[in-house]
UniProtKB/TrEMBL annotation:
Belongs to the CoaE family. The lineage of its organism: Bacteria, Pseudomonadati, Bacteroidota, Sphingobacteriia, Sphingobacteriales. Its EC number is 2.7.1.24. This is Dephospho-CoA kinase. Catalyzes the phosphorylation of the 3'-hydroxyl group of dephosphocoenzyme A to form coenzyme A. Keywords: ATP-binding, Coenzyme A biosynthesis, Cytoplasm, Kinase, Nucleotide-binding, Transferase. PANTHER family: BIFUNCTIONAL COENZYME A SYNTHASE-RELATED, DEPHOSPHO-COA KINASE-RELATED. ATP binds at residues 11-16.
């Protein structure tokens, strides 16, 4: 079975495109959702985060103190790198273990930081969902009820779309002009042939 990754910058619509693949019966792993679960449930990750950031990382009820941790790491690249160094290896291994249990021609792993985390290296092919910058900004402003400055700040912490294109085996253009379904079906058929 082929292991396929799908990614895209904030506001590109990677989750929407992933749902199209999922609706066709493709086994689907949401790395960002799984990472949130792992940060709460994995003793190894829990200990690593507390050692790195302190006991305030988790609330008294055991839940991850997300806002506190986000405030601590997202403005400090070194702390973000520490966080990713603790969480990413466990999530990558979780995805590998999950993929090995799936049936079918291929499985799909959605991850926002597919290239940045290095997890693309454990995959056979990757799909990049791309969209024009102005459209991405509008989508995120509407979805998250945030300002353009906040969206641009988030984008500045991600790998550029141009850089991601250099890694991608397939690109889906989600510009609200080119129909998505024919693009997804074309990739699906190519993957089924492989």
């Amino acid at each position: 079975m082929l292991k396929i990754g799908i990614t895209g910058g904030i506001g590109t619509g990677k989750s929407f495109v992933s749902k199209i693949f999922k609706s066709m019966g493709v086994p689907f792993y949401d790395a960002d959702k799984e990472a949130k679960d792992i940060m709460t449930k994995s003793d190894i990750v829990r200990r690593g985060l507390i050692d790195a950031f302190g006991s305030e990382t988790y609330r008294e009820d055991g839940a991850l103190n997300r806002k506190w941790l986000a405030d601590k790491v997202f403005k400090d690249p070194e702390k973000l790198q520490v966080l990713n160094g603790i969480v990413h290896p466990v999530v990558i291994q979780s995805a590998v273990d999950w993929a090995e249990k799936q049936k079918g021609a291929y499985s799909l792993k959605e991850a926002a930081l597919l290239y940045e985390s290095g997890s693309y290296q454990s995959l056979d092919y990757t799909i990049l969902v791309a969209a024009p910058l102005e459209l991405r900004i509008k989508r995120v402003m509407k979805r998250d009820n945030v300002s353009e400055e906040e969206v641009l700040d988030r984008m500045s912490r991600q790998m550029s779309e141009e850089e991601k294109k250099g890694y991608a085996d397939f690109i889906v253009v989600n510009d609200e002009i080119a129909p998505l379904l024919p693009q997804v079906l074309a990739i699906h058929h190519k993957l089924m042939e492989k």
